[in-house]
Amino acid sequence: MIKAGIIGGAGYTAGELIRILLNHPDAEIDFVYSTSQPGKAVSTIHQDLAGETDLKFTDAINKEADVVFLCLGHGNSKKFLSENQFSDNTKIVDLSTDFRMSGDHEFVYGLPEFNKKEIQSAKNIANPGCFATAISLAILPLAKTGKLKDDWHVNAVTGATGAGTSLSETTHFTWRDNNFSSYKSFGHQHLNEIGQSLKKLQPSYEGEVNFIPNRGNFSRGIHATAYTKYEGSLEEASEIYSEVYKDAVFTHLVDGELHLKQVVNTNKCLLKLEKFDNKILVTSIIDNLLKGASGQAVQNMNIMFGFEESAGLKLKANYF
C-alpha cells in the first residue's frame, strides 16, 4: 500500500483525487495539504465526503510520501517544489501547466494512450490539461500514422468547474446560468502541449490547430468537435483509430451520437468519427475533472507503480 499526499487540497481536482484514493485498493491518503484550511475536516469543504473520511487538512507535508499530487494554481507548482523537498523515492504528479512542455526533462507528459512506456519508468509526471486531453485523443491517431496534411479546426465546450473554485466575473451563477460564451480564441494555453504532441508523432506536420474554447452553463464535462481535410475513407480512419486505441483502457471509439452524460463522473474518453466529403469530423467527450485531471492523474500513478491501470477508476456515469 503506497502513501499519497495531496497539495492544494481545497480545490475541485483535489476533491476528486480524495474521492478516488479513498477507494483505491493499492493507495492510501497520507496527508491533504492546504494553507487556507489547516485543521479543518476535509468534509467541511468537500461536503459529499461527510461520513466517508475523518481526514483533516494540514499545513505540514510528509517528505517521505510515495507519491505527491500537486493540485495548485498554474505557476505555483514550480514555486512549491523549489521551497519543499521530498525524498528521492517520492514520485510527483503535477496537475498544473508548469511542467508540460518538453523543456522540463524531469517530467514526462502523462497522456497514457501515447506515452505509456515513458510513464512506466517516470519519476515525475506532467498531467495533461483537460482541453488538451479531449483534443489530443481526437486528433493524434492521424498524426501517429502520418496522415495529417492540413489544419485542424476545433470547437470545444467546458463546464464551469474547468475554471476552478476561485470566483471571477464569468464563474458566478448569475453569469453562467442560461449563458454561453467563447474565450481565448486561437490562443488557449493548452494549444502548446497539443502542438508539442503533434510534432512528436508527425515531425513533418506544419499545420495549425485552430481552437475556439467555449464556456457552457453546466458543471462538468467537455464536448469537443475537430475536423480536418482527409483523403481516406471513413472505414480507413476507423481502422486507424481502432488500432491506436486497441489497448486503451479508457478511450473508446463508438457509434451513435455522443453526449456528456455518457462520460461525466467517469475516466472515459469516447470518440466518434464521421466523414463529410473531403473532411473527417472527430467528436470527443470527457469529464474535465476526471479524464481531464484527477482521474488521469491516478491512471498515471497506477502505471508508474505497476498497478492495474484502471485501479480505483472503475467509475459509473450518472446517466439520469
Give start-end ranges of low-pLDDT stretches.
Answer: none
* Main sheet makeup: 7 strands, parallel
| Number of domains as seen in the coordinates | 2
CATH superfamily of the largest domain: Dihydrodipicolinate Reductase, domain 2
CATH architecture of the largest domain: 2-Layer Sandwich
Mean of all residue-level pLDDT scores: 92
Distance between the termini: 35 Å
Shape label:
globular
Counted by DSSP, the helix tally is: 9
Characterise this structure:
This protein has nine helices and 14 strands. It is globular. The relative contact order is 0.15. With 320 residues, it is α/β, with parallel strands linked by helices. It has two domains: 2-127 and 293-305, NAD(P)-binding Rossmann-like Domain (Rossmann fold), CATH 3.40.50; 130-286, Dihydrodipicolinate Reductase, domain 2 (2-Layer Sandwich). A seven-stranded parallel beta sheet has the order 3-2-1-4-5-7-6, covered by helices on one side. The protein has a seven-stranded mixed beta sheet with strand order 9-10-8-11-14-13-12. Helices cover 27% and strands 22% of the residues. A hairpin with a 2-residue loop joins strand 13 (269-276) and strand 14 (279-286). The longest helix is centred in the middle third of the chain and has 15 residues, at 130-144. The mean pLDDT is 92. InterPro entries: AGPR (IPR050085), AGPR_AS (IPR023013), AGPR_dimerisation_dom (IPR058924), AGPR_type-1 (IPR000706), NAD(P)-bd_dom_sf (IPR036291), Semialdehyde_DH_NAD-bd (IPR000534). Its main location: cytoplasm. Catalyzes the NADPH-dependent reduction of N-acetyl-5-glutamyl phosphate to yield N-acetyl-L-glutamate 5-semialdehyde. This is N-acetyl-gamma-glutamyl-phosphate reductase. Keywords: Amino-acid biosynthesis, Arginine biosynthesis, Cytoplasm, NADP, Oxidoreductase.
